[in-house]
Amino acid sequence: MGTSRYDKPRPLRSSRLFRLFLIILLCIILPYRLFSRIQQWRHPSAGLNLAYATLLFEDSAHTTGKDADAYFVSVRMLNYQLLHDPKTRTKKNIPFIVLTTPGVDMWKVAQLSMDGATIIPDEKLDTHWIQPGQSRWQDVMTKLRVFELVEYDRILFLDADTYLFKNLDSIFDERGAQPLKTRHKKPEIKNDEARLPDEYLFATLSEVTQSLHTYPPLPMSYFNAGFFLLSPSIELYEYYLSLFPLNRFETIYPEQNLLNYAHRQNGNMPWSRLHYSWNIQLPSMQDVKEGVASVHAKLWTGGNELQPVPQELRERWEAKKLEMWEYYSNGLQQQRRYEEDWKKGLYGGPLHRHMRYGSGHR
């Protein structure tokens, strides 16, 4: 029996080949897109330019007694914890920026640069008009200059007297650490204030006002400006500056009260709330046992009668300082060597490896 021409296999038509190609392509792309979306949802900071930052004043060079250079040592320790300490260092190679005012000794700037910090020299803002609660707060408005660093997408600002217990990298992925659209409530729009940006990011935690407190601490509408996450913005920075002459806030806590006014909860740019476990002021050992990631306190002192620093925390700070000296091999002798070299005019180029000027600085 002969074979019919109808029994021969038919070639696939081009349209069927195209449909098959599309199906294969979709089977590859869809899972990838889904995975990417999940990763973006879980890690919204992926691909962003992130940084940690603090501010070092020259005032610390003029302290005496056991507090001599305490803030400089604390900045070095913060740098060590953020960049080098295996227990707390960044896993994402996030840089640590140290803003320095003009009077900071150059041997200190050189030392911090050698330690790995990114140094950004900055000018002070004119704040002769403020009446701070303590004279050493006269220039703290300079902290606002961190908002000029627009080459970064997100910055976590930490006061120099911050001590870490845990890695902080995942704070950038927090729900509260994402930009918000600016509100447009007309009663809150002031004609004598600069224009608000279309979106902003300012996230922080409630103030803690007493050493004896619960954990988690009670939420407040007022925050402490020693630990906050921001998205740099020249427009936002200009808005802050526009508030200087308007008498809208008490200057006893200068930058803190300005920021609390600018980001008041009933205003058009309310602050976002970070999880309470990231940082706390007036820390207790109970806070540490409960798992707080960092504390904001001068752990090199005993505090005072109303706000004592727990002895165990002071001992941990001292132990970490010794660990840092050991890491840097020569410890205090290395620090003194840089000071002596500078006085002798032997200062060379190491500083410039990590020193630069941020854009938009005045």
UniProtKB/TrEMBL annotation:
Domain of life: Eukaryota
Leader sequence segment: none
Matching Pfam families: Glyco_transf_8
KW Transmembrane helix (keyword) present: yes
One GO MF term attached to the UniProt entry: glycosyltransferase activity
TM helices/strands, residue ranges: 17-35
Keywords in alphabetical order: Membrane, Transmembrane, Transmembrane helix
Entry-linked Gene3D superfamilies: Spore Coat Polysaccharide Biosynthesis Protein SpsA, Chain A (3.90.550.10)
Name of this chain's protein: Glycosyltransferase family 8 protein
Lineage summary: Eukaryota, Fungi, Dikarya, Ascomycota, Pezizomycotina
